[in-house]
Design a protein that fits this description.
The complex is a heterodimer of chains A (235) and B (352). The mean pLDDT of chain A is 89. In chain A, the strands form two sheets. A six-stranded mixed sheet of chain A has the order 6-7-8-3-9-10, with helices on both faces. In chain A, strands 2-1-4-5 form a four-stranded antiparallel sheet, covered by helices on one side. Chain A is an alpha/beta fold and 235 residues long. In chain A, 34% of the residues lie in helices and 26% in strands. Chain B has 352 residues and is of the alpha+beta class. Chain B folds into two domains: 2-43 and 226-348, no CATH class; 46-223, no CATH class. Chain B has helices spanning 2-10, 12-48, 72-78, 178-186, 215-220, 225-257, 259-267, 272-304, 315-332, 334-341, and strands at residues 54-58, 83-95, 100-109, 121-122, 130-134, 147-150, 157-163, 167-168, 171-177, 196-199, 210-214. In chain B, strands 2-3-9-5-7-6 form a six-stranded mixed beta barrel. In chain B, strand 2 (83-95) and strand 3 (100-109) form a beta hairpin. In chain B, helix 2 runs antiparallel to helix 6 and helix 6 (225-257) packs parallel to helix 9 (315-332). Chain B starts with a helix and ends in an 11-residue tail after the last helix. Classes of the chains: A alpha/beta (235), B alpha+beta (352).
């Protein structure tokens, strides 16, 4: 049993002859300690896949199991709580609240966390991410890389077993992007989390365990040769 | 409250605008309310003080005390230990020594009877040439000890004492004897007419050509009273309604600016109820601060208003208006509620 198991999941937007299939029947699984990445051009359906894994929307058909529990027919309320307790989201834009300082971004989580024993220590997170000096800054005063590291701290703070990152490096230069990717790999390997990263940047595949390619709603797991081919194509 | 407070403190300029709006609206509404209350009181306090709820007046008077005359035959029919005679007339009081003139009323009463007002300074009159004045006459330059004429009378009347809050038809009342009233109104103290009979109990078997009113009915029919109170009522009500719209629309605009942020919060598993709670906390904080400042300004203003201005800050009334403004602004938050309930966490991801 994995952290995430998708069984024959599809997603169709619209109906009749305006229907668009964003996701063809897809199987996907993620284990604890695994860093998986989904690459593909924009419009290929990779974000749709991430939103279904993250309980942001429900599939048109198929089954979604999180920690072995079938969440396919969860109510909106149940899915909200599932997102809060199980997933840490790192989004491409700023997913920080503009009027809260770095420290308050995490304090907000405390206010809604009713099982505080699972929480990570804020200070050790900040030290790990190198943002100890930024605690009293507002997001507008941070650089793109700093903001993304704060977002990672925010995502990890609630101690979720699964981290979902949607283009976390989109606004970063290569060295910063590599740092963030390394960080996600560390989180998966050292902290035993499942991490799914969506990207179209093939330079970042060095520390990744599993590579999927998404094309026109079809997800294909790549073997070593496939990965090599993708990286070669990028250069 | 955490989110609400942090956001206000981070965007002080923006939320200061909302607070200023609250201050101005509440100041205006409280001022109008004070004026409305003051004017209404100036019309009616002398009637409110009458010691009975029923008033017998002549039928032709159209419920207007100013025109009513009750003859001896009529009042003899209903007189009992529960009734008292009242003579009312609108007069101009003048101090010939200072040439100060003042529109006013005289209430002719039995000086030791049930209609005797409480004396706040000086003493009750004991003879026909003495009067007790509402103490607001001092604002217009008449004082205890002055000898005044009433409607240019050759007889002079000495003001021997004051009472407080006894005004009728917006002007102060002089209390005097029925004889003095009769002298001025009918030209002779021998004419036994009065204006009305005040009764503690409902009168049955009314004399011919008379009509019985309650105190409230009498007040409503003071010329101009109902028109004035309903005009003020309409203005105050409209302002409270406008508060709902202004604050509602203001908060709605601020809410749509934050839809993307709310989407992120929803994606992170923060419940809609938490966002809604933050919205209403925010409105409550802004409203309490704004209306609080408005109340403070109003209280400060009331100390510097001229005494002749008919302003009366009734704390109960002010509290009710303040409450209504706060409640209305919270109701205004319902515009935004709809939008917040429809926030889709998917908006945070942007979609493909």
């Amino acid at each position: 049993m994995g952290l995430v198991d998708l069984k024959q999941v599809t997603k169709v937007y619209g109906s009749g002859h305006t229907a668009v299939t964003a996701l063809h029947p897809t199987d996907f699984s993620l284990q604890a300690g695994e860093f998986a990445t989904v690459i593909g051009p924009s419009g290929s359906g990779k974000t749709t896949l991430l939103t279904i894994i993250g309980s942001l929307q429900q599939p048109s058909s198929g089954q979604v199991l999180i920690n072995g529990q079938d969440t396919t027919n969860f109510s909106e309320h149940q899915r909200t709580d599932l997102r809060f307790n199980t997933f840490g989201f790192i989004l491409q834009g700023s997913n920080l609240i503009p009027f809260l300082t770095v420290a308050d971004q995490l304090a907000l989580v405390d206010r809604f966390n009713h099982h505080k024993q699972h929480k990570m220590s804020r200070d050790s997170l900040f030290t790990m991410l190198g943002i100890t000096d930024l605690t009293n800054q507002y997001p507008s005063a941070l650089s793109g890389g700093e903001r993304q590291r704060v977002a990672i701290a925010r995502a990890l703070y609630n101690d979720p077993p699964i981290i979902l990152a949607d283009e976390p490096t989109a606004s970063l230069d290569t060295s910063r992007a590599l740092q963030v990717t390394e960080l996600l790999a560390t989180i998966a390997h050292k902290m035993d989390r499942g991490v799914v990263m969506i990207t179209h940047d093939t330079r970042l595949l060095g520390s990744v365990d599993t590579v999927y390619e998404m094309r026109d709603g079809v997800l294909t797991k790549q073997d070593a040769a496939g990965v090599k081919k993708i990286r070669a194509a990028a250069i | 409250m955490f989110l609400a407070y942090k956001e206000i403190m981070h965007n002080k300029a923006r939320y200061l605008l909302v607070v200023v709006t609250f201050v101005l609206i509440s100041y205006l509404v409280l001022f109008l309310t004070g004026l409305a209350t003051g004017l209404a009181r100036n019309n009616r306090t002398a009637i409110d003080a009458l010691p009975g709820n029923y008033v017998l007046m002549s039928k032709y008077a159209n419920k207007n005390l100013l025109s009513s005359v009750i003859t001896k035959d009529q009042y003899d029919k209903v007189s009992s230990s529960d009734t008292a005679l009242l003579g009312q007339m609108t007069v101009v009081a003048e101090n010939p020594q200072t040439d100060k003139k003042l529109n006013s009323n005289i209430f002719g009463i039995r000086l030791t009877g049930a209609l005797k007002p409480p004396v706040t300074a000086g003493r009750m009159p004991t003879k026909n040439s003495e009067v007790l004045a509402d103490d607001s006459v001092t604002y217009y330059g008449l004082h205890r000890g002055d000898r005044i004429t009433l409607n240019g009378s050759s007889q002079k009347y000495r003001i021997v004492g004051y009472t407080r809050d006894h005004r009728f038809a917006t002007v102060p009342v002089f209390y005097t004897t029925l004889s003095t009233f009769r002298q001025i109104r009918f030209g002779s103290a021998q004419v036994p007419n009065v204006s009305a009979v005040v009764s503690k109990k409902k009168l049955t078997d009314l004399p011919k050509n008379t009509q019985q009113l309650t105190k409230a009915g009498l007040i409503e029919n003071i010329p101009g009273y109902t028109a004035q109170t309903s005009t003020f009522g309409l203005m105050i009500g409209a302002m409270i309604g406008i508060t709902l719209l202004i604050i509602g629309i203001f908060m709605y605009i601020l809410t749509i600016q934050k839809v993307a942020m709310y989407g992120v919060m929803r994606a992170q598993g923060i419940r809609t109820s938490a966002i809604v709670t933050a919205l209403f906390w925010q409105i409550l904080i802004l409203a309490l601060v704004g209306v609080g400042i408005g109340n403070g300004l109003m209280i400060a203003t009331s100390f510097v208003l001229p005494k002749t201005m008919p302003f009366y800050g009734d704390p109960m009334m002010m509290l009710m208006i303040t409450g209504a403004l706060v409640v209305m602004s919270l109701v205004g938050g319902l515009f935004s509620l709809r939008r917040i309930l429809h926030i889709d966490p998917l908006e945070a991801i942007g979609g493909e």
